[in-house]
Amino acid sequence: MAAEKSTVLIYSTPTCVYCKMAKKFFAENGVEYKEFNVADDYEKAVEMIKKSGQQGVPVIDIGGKIIVGFDKNAIKEALGLN
Amino acid sequence: MEEYDFIIIGAGSAGLPAAVYAARFRLKTLVIGEVVGGTIINTHIVENWPGVVSATGWDLMETLKKHVDANNVPVLDEKVLSVERKGPLNFIVKTSDKSFKAKTVLFATGTERKKLNVPGEKEFENKGVSYCAVCDGALFKNKEVAVIGGSDSAAKEALFLAEHASKVYIIHRGDKIRPEPINGERVKNNKKIELMLKKNVKEIFGDKMVKGVKFVEGGELKVEGVFVEIGANPNSGLAAKLGVKLNEKNEIIIDHESKTNIEGIFAAGDVADRHFKQAITGAAEGVIAAFSAYECINKNCAMEQQ
Questions:
Q1: Dist CA B54 CA A29 (whole Å)
Q2: pLDDT tens, residue by residue, B93-105
Q3: Of A59, B26, B115, B170, whose CA is between 20 and 30 Å from B286?
Q4: Which residues of B are catalytic?
Q5: What is the pTM assigned to this prediction?
């Protein structure tokens, strides 16, 4: 594992199941992440919309690469998993 | 090629219960489903699964998945691309990178949400237009939103959204909505929810984000969120290709034993032709399909004459 670890951010809401799936996927693959609850955190909600140009959750930021929704293949690719 | 007695396509409230029973019948079973848990995971609160007073759809299906795991049935989260019949009780099920042989197959493939197909819908998807109130509803705190549809699901979405939004309009083309009576009462008693009946949306408009909807009947409504809940189409395409008979709504026709017109092929849940579609009825159909598969492999397979 020579690759540098990217910072992983997830913008989520408490009831969003695709957010839960994404977090489960991170946990299963030993990926550390920082989570922002955009239902309560207005500033982070604005940041999420700015980054992704839309307001669906989850938005996942992997070292600057923005992924909308729980797109497992895109996440794997961005993390260099496989 | 891996060989199974019973392959279940779909990992929702019909497919997972079928897996539990199939394991107990000692059928070698595999579940392949795109979304483990199925569509009910997007239901905020489920209050009509007997034995569970109230749970989120997600938690309920996590429990069911654990039940499947406890019976050592593998669940693959993949998309099935084709099902072919090679001969009597001999089917090939293919995913993007694997093929499996199966004596019997259950289609528990559920449904896909219908779109409105009006201008602005695609353009503003996730920019105010959503198909999942549970996912995105919290982002509409103190905003005005609309739910389009008149079903029980539409009423439940409106009730969930009313926990966050300042105002929720239910826009429906008919002259009344048709929720479960208990949810109808809740809608009626919720001061934030207002019905707009006999209205057809012709356009969703906005700039960067949604600003409102326009009606065929004239006039417009300013809202920042539009939640589309106008029903669903059965995922019966793969079954149809195999020669499975569908009804006029493209639902798979099944008998009392969850059998289709093809020996060894079964269907259960929202994809099947039952009028009253509930998680619990789908579960029952799935369980019956598992028993039918067991009998089919050990005795005979013919569909009952109707």
A1: 32
A2: 999 999 999 999 9
A3: B115
A4: 132, 135-136
A5: 0.89
